[in-house]
Amino acid sequence: MNDNMVAFIGAGNMARCVIAAMVKSGYPASNIIASNRTEPKLKALAADYGIQTTLDNLTAVQKADVIVLAVKPQMMGDVCGQLIEQAPEIKEKLFVTVAAGLPVSRYESWLGEVRLVRSMPNTPSLVGLGVTGLFPSRCSNYEKAFVDAMFKGTGMTVWLDNEAEIDHVIAVTGSSPAYFFYFMQAMQQEAEALGFAPEQAKKMVAQTALGAATMALESEHSFAELRAQVTSKGGTTHEAVTSFASAGLEQMVSQAMQAAIRRAREMA
Ligand code: NAD
Predict the structure, then answer these.
(1) What digits encode the pLDDT tens for the residues 171-187?
(2) Is residue 39 scored above 80 in pLDDT?
(3) Which of 47, 187, 239, 256 has its CA 20 to 30 A from that of 83?
């Protein structure tokens, strides 16, 4: 599997994140090529990971077995249109896209009936703790296994049977790092109001979040059971949790996640 040449078109944050994970998990850097509109990011990638780089998308895709489309969604139509016009033979290659919001049908309108995996990574992929939703179209099991291995180094992968589920992944894992940041921000603000220094408050809150998430991942208990274990009736935690419940926390979270799904559908 490691002898496939993988070309990244667009060498921004998300491409860097997947490239870093691939190289860290042992994928040969010489079998990765990235192209970008401008040079600085390419230089940094070559210096940090030893991959090949080019300013010419065509050079990258012609060398590749797998083409990772990692430009912003609004650039995608132009990039795909140019590539297919200049090198129609790339239709036979495997495509992977990291762009949010664009359905398979859109790629097919630009590229024809290609084998494609739509991926929806999230930002904790940068620290190897991401979750990536993956939806395959026309791919073989071998190709799915290859793409799974590509993203495994960025964290966990979740394969979807139905493309509409990508919008659900956006609500559950794509947008949700920001939900947790928002909650932590509110906690930090209150900790500061109680007199803790900003840096100290930030660390206390983030460490508690990390501890709670680690406990949840390592435990067989549900979130509700874990919560019950630290909530004695009449105690301090019970008071705080009751306050959240009476403010309608669960309904608020549900509404927020549904809003993310609605927006994802509007953007498609
Ligand atoms: P980015 O702006 O960091 O990277 C895009 C790169 O593409 C830039 O370096 C830009 O110079 C390059 N580029 C633009 N036009 C080009 C062209 N014609 N040819 C070659 N290169 C070109 O953006 P990003 O955050 O890495 O996002 C890339 C994709 O990943 C987007 O489609 C986004 O929807 C998706 N995505 C990002 C995240 C995230 O958390 N950053 C999460 C999920 C999905």
Answers:
(1) 999 999 999 999 999 99
(2) yes
(3) 47
Nearest CA to ligand 1 atom 23: 12
Which residues neighbour 221 within 8 Å (Cβ) at sequence distance 6 or greater?
A: 229
Q: Would you say the pTM of this structure is higher than 0.90?
A: yes
Q: What is the pLDDT of residue 2?
A: 79
Q: Whose CA is nearest to atom 3 of ligand 1?
A: 12
To test ligand 1's pocket by mutation, which of 14, 67, 122 has the most ligand atoms within 8 angstroms of CB? 14
